[in-house]
Amino acid sequence: MRDPKILVGFLIVPLIMFPVLGYVMNLSVQTAKESAQKATVLVVNHDLEGNSTDLINFLNRYVKAIPVNVTTVDAAIPLLSSNNATGIIEIPQDFSQNISTQTPAHVKFYTVFSGSGLFENVGSTIVSSLVEAYNRAMAPNLLVPEDSVIVKGKRVEGISPSVLSSLVLSQAFALPITMIILLTYSMQIAATSVAMEKEEKTLETLLTLPMDRFSILAGKVSGSIVVAGIGAIAYMFGFNYYIGSFTGTIATTAPSVDLVSLGLVPSLFGYLLMGISLFVTLLAALALAVILSAFAQDVRSAQSLVSYVYPFLFIPALALMYLDINSLPFWLRTIFYAIPFSQPIIASKAITMGDYLTAGLGIVYVTAFTLVIMYVASRLFATEKILTAKLRFRGLRKGKTPPAD
Amino acid sequence: MSEDSSLSVAIDAKSVVKVFGNIRALDGLSFTVSPGEIFGLIGPNGAGKTTALRIISTLLLPTSGSVKIFDLDVFKQAAEVREIISYLPEEAGPYPNLTGHEYLEFMARFTVKSKTEAHQIVNEAAEICGLGDRLKDRAKTYSKGMKRRLLVARALMTKPKLAVLDEPTSGLDVLQSYRVRDIIKRYATEKKVTVIISSHNMLEVEHLCEQVALLNKGRIVAEGRPQELKDKFGSPNLEEVFAKVVGFA
Fold first, then answer.
1. Which of A85, A146, A182, B15 could form an S-S bond across to A232 if both were Cys, CB 3.0 to 4.6 Å?
2. Closest-CA residue in chain B for A382?
3. Are A201 and B82 inside 8 Å of each other by CB?
């Protein structure tokens, strides 16, 4: 407990990390609510009589309902982006007649699916609340909503946004969890690999061998990738079995949804981009771990130092697992984009929705970051800094003896 | 010094200064070592011995001054220097999860490319260390002395042009120390390996070294052949010579 590195690494980091994560989630909920309350929906009105106009006026008290002069929902879809609308309401021709005769009037609500995350349903939840409020004002179950979604500009009937969102979310867990496991394992291995050389007193001999110093660094990094990769695969097998052992027995009444036909499964090219994004992020993490471990005197210190990086890994992974980055305030969005470890998750969500540009730009950014970090790490290995980083800290403390001989 | 004469010098250190923060570990160190010589750097703790050996081994850079190993600059030609030297740190260890044999093989492959050559070198190392069947065991099961013998063997097995040995007999008992000293002498005379060692053991230095330099506070305070120094200072041993030079006696 007298070692400040351990104190900070294992105690203070979690005490900061989880409250920050909670704050981010809370911000996202607030932002989602605000967005939903300012939501815009387009109205395709086949009825055009009094009751349909009343419905539109009712909706306009809470959201912005814009009637559009088209005859089909498909014709209204292209108007969504220009109106910043997040959904389409289709009022059937017999709406007013049904309302007048107190017969249930079916109204279709199409929600744009953006693949955003846990709070994507807030918008449709608010519409549902409005429908209930309308029914309370008029008559119970008079207005019967029929939920559907619009995915990548195409209308998909009969699938509610909450079901689709849940399904996509459950699939979206895989990458962040894999990334957390892979990066934490490999960073620990890389840091331990260098620190172990110091602890076992093999580093000085190693550095005087006729071998390029960059090869030593590359060896440490690639060895860490191999070991961590095997560990991550083993972990994912076990984790999948664990999840499958109880979710497989839960009966569901939800309709089966084929994500492939909806285009919500990445293409081969998409998977390739995701792989590249994860790989360059992994390289950056490993190089960072090597740099940090150069300042450690032993394995325990190196592991503590590496744990300082975990908040930058866990917070984006855990937050973006559930959240849409675009739902965050600008300043927070900027921070997440700036953290290299966010990029694989941002990329995977973007790729799922067909946005390869975002993924590509993220890869370029992380690659540039990785090159800088690798350069710093190679300079560390190429010079006496790999040894004297320890010596210098000793010299700064009062009353300490000078470096050995 | 002429170009021709510089090639007959194994180590040429000129006005070497090394500063760590506020600490001046080496303060204008200058000495030369001839090829095939066994040279001793002796002095108390904190004198600068290990720092000097680390600079020679390209681990540290001098703050100022120059060091050349067989006319190769340790700073500008560090990679070439590493090709011809072998360094044994004072505190060194083998990889604990490798067997002694695996460790020697692993190290041999850095110096030689062919498996046959590596095999020969490893056999020689096995003979040097004298660990016999224990070479099949993992290094973490070795005693301190056994580890040191393994490491000395590793340092000498490749027959480097310059062997830099920091406290080579550290942790060894009397007989083992005697054996290692004998091997070092044999390598210097028969295999023309230049050796620079640091040691606290004055008896060992007297027995082993042809030239010694007494180091104190980063500077050489006396240098010469052991017998010459003893004669010069009227002392029976180098220990007393050192005490007289630094003003203790």
1. A182
2. B59
3. no
- Residue B213's pLDDT band (cuts 50, 70, 90): very high
Amino acid at A272: L
Rounded CA-CA distance A52/B84 in Å is 92
Tokens 């089966």 sit on residue: A256
Q: Do B50 and A395 touch (CB under 8 A)?
A: no
Mean pLDDT of the residues in chain A = 79
pLDDT score of B228: 93
Nearest CA to A297 among A400, A182, A382, A175? A400
A355 CB-near residues (< 8 Å, 6+ apart): none
How far, in Å, CA of A322 to CA of A75, rounded? 32
| Amino acid found at B58 | T
CATH number for B201: 3.40.50.300
Please tell me the distance from the alpha carbon of residue A170 to that of residue A240, in angstroms, as a whole number.
Answer: 12
Range of the domain at B213: 3-245
Cβ distance of B95 and A200 shorter than 8 Å: yes
- Chain A within 8 Å of B145 (Cβ-Cβ)? no
Q: What is the ipTM of this complex?
A: 0.90
Q: Which of A206, A208, A396 to mutate to test the interface with B (most CBs of B within 10 A)?
A: A208
Q: What is the Cα–Cα distance from B219 to B241, expressed in whole angstroms? A: 16
Give CA angle at A103 (A102, A106), nearest 5°. Answer: 125
**CA-CA distance, A373 to A286, in Å (whole number)?**
9
Which residues does residue A156 pair with via DSSP β-bridges, in sequence order?
A: A149
Q: In this complex, do A403 and B23 lie within 8 Å of one another by their Cβ atoms? A: yes
What are the CA-CA distances from residue A239 to residues A174, A181, A234, A244 (Å)?
Answer: 10, 11, 9, 8
Query: Across the interface, which of B20, B58, B89 has its CB nearest the CB of A201?
Result: B89
SS3 category, A109: strand
Where do the domains of chain A lie, and which CATH numbers do they carry?
A: 4-29+173-396 (no CATH), 38-166 (3.40.1710.10)
Q: CA–CA separation, A378 vs A213, rounded Å?
A: 7
Q: Which of A208, A212, A396 sits opposite B59 (nearest CB)?
A: A208
CB-based contact B226:B212 (threshold 8 Å): yes
Best of B53, B54, B72, B84 to mutate (most A CBs within 10 Å, chain A): B54
Beta strands B11-20 and B64-69, pairing class: antiparallel
C-alpha distance from A259 to closest chain B C-alpha (Å): 49
Domain count of chain B?
Answer: 1
Question: How far apart are alpha carbons A100 and A102 in whole angstroms?
Answer: 5
**In this predicted model, what pLDDT tens digit does every residue of A314-331 receive, in sequence order?**
888 888 877 778 878 899
| A119 phi and psi angles, rounded to 5 deg | -100, 15
For A51-101, how does the pLDDT look when each residue is reduced to its tens digit (9 = 90+)? 888 888 888 888 888 999 988 999 999 998 888 888 899 998 888 888 888
Helix, strand, coil fractions of chain A, as percent rounded to 5:
65, 10, 25
Residue in chain B closest to A208 (alpha carbons) equals B82
Q: Return the axis-axis angle of helices A121-137 and A161-172, rounded to nearest 10°.
A: 160
- Write down the pTM of the prediction: 0.74
- Closest partner CB to A205 (pick from B21, B52, B89): B89
* Residue whose entry in the numeric block shows the structure tokens 């009227």: B234
